Amino acid sequence: MVRAAVAGIGGRMGSRIAQILKEEDGIQLVGGFERAGHPAVGQDVSSITGGAPTGLLVSGSFQELPGPVDVVIDFTTADASLANLQAAAERKPAMVIGSTGFTPPMLEKARSLARSIPCVLAPNMSVGVNVLFKVVEELTRLLGPAYDVEIVETHHRFKKDAPSGTALRLAEAAAAARGRRLEEVGVFERHGLIGERPEGAIGVQTLRGGDVVGEHTVLFAGMGERIEVTHRAHSRDNFARGAVHAAKWVVTQPPGLYDMQDVLKLR
Ligand SMILES: NC(=O)C1=CN([C@@H]2O[C@H](COP(=O)(O)OP(=O)(O)OC[C@H]3O[C@@H](n4cnc5c(N)ncnc54)[C@H](OP(=O)(O)O)[C@@H]3O)[C@@H](O)[C@H]2O)C=CC1
Ligand SMILES: O=C(O)C1=N[C@H](C(=O)O)C[C@H](O)C1
Questions:
Q1: Which of 22, 38, 109, 159 is an active site residue?
Q2: CB 50 within 8 A of CB 14
Q3: Is this complex's ipTM strictly greater than 0.95?
Q4: Residue 154 CA: which ligand is closest?
Q5: Facing residues of 71 across strands?
């Protein structure tokens, strides 16, 4: 039985993951934490997952987690996840990180910490989006440079980072298919007299509003026709189930930094 703890257990993703862990075979919830001062700290986890009291209390930090833990599933923030990965590298549980907003130096640091433990870090844990990464790469290659690539992402009003980690990964996939790096060709803002669209640009636009769980559209616009590919998440369940699947997988792997393409064998 895999013993899992959830970082940010009171959050939108953390709470759903904790609920799914209660139903899942082969893995069990043995702890969860929020930062010190969060109202959930010291409460029974059933206040988050529902059901009868379990005697398991929400901790105030990674270090205060009770008992042995095989894997920590972390959907918090990039800063918090990096600090938790540092703690995991010392204490040795594996990690699954879904937080987005990692800068390139933060990713480098994560890669170096993951030399000590196996860690899955992925901006999107749904099967559909991970297949979309492959499809976008292939469409970009097949359509060639005559088709302009634009990515539009829409999320709920509470999301803190922009563009979404998924939109950035989609843009990276398109850039890679053209043998370019996103830093060279990405266009993240348009306003004013900006002139004609630069050849080879990859546009990424962000919309925020209401309770939209997550939508990503990749537009391939040519002269006289266009293709649009859209992924819509109906709920957070596919992300949460993907994270639990990744947790069961990662505990069987040697140290290293992995993503969902590895977990889903899409590489
Ligand atoms: N990879 C994927 O498939 C998906 C990734 N995400 C990403 O997951 C992250 C979380 O999203 P979401 O659940 O909507 O956000 P929420 O704000 O609802 O949840 C985050 C939780 O983490 C807590 N937290 C923040 N810092 C710490 C810390 N240092 N230690 C412990 N807990 C902490 C927050 O507490 P507090 O409220 O006090 O800040 C909150 O309870 C985002 O980066 C989002 O982009 C989301 C969905 C899918
Ligand atoms: O914050 C969210 O909600 C989501 N974040 C992820 C991202 O930034 O790509 C994935 C998903 O779209 C939901």
A1: 159
A2: no
A3: yes
A4: 2
A5: 4, 94
Closest CA to 13 of 85, 93, 97, 83: 97
- Domains of the chain, earliest start first: 2-121+236-263 (3.40.50.720), 127-233 (3.30.360.10)
Please tell me which residue in 155, 216, 231, 248 is annotated as part of the active site.
155
Ligand 2 neighbourhood includes 100 CB (under 6 angstroms): yes
Q: Is 26 left (phi over 0), alpha (psi -120 to 50) or beta?
A: left
Residue with tokens 């907003």: 101
Nearest ligand atom owner, CA of 204: 2
Query: Under 8 Å CB-to-CB from 261, ≥6 apart: which residues?
Result: 122, 130, 133, 267
Best residue among 76, 126, 154, 237 to mutate for probing ligand 1's pocket (most ligand atoms within 8 Å of CB) is 76
Per-residue model confidence (pLDDT) at position 67:
87
- The verdict on whether 191 is a catalytic residue reads no
Provide the 8-state DSSP code for 174: H
pLDDT, tens only, 60-98: 999 999 989 999 999 999 999 999 999 999 989 999 999
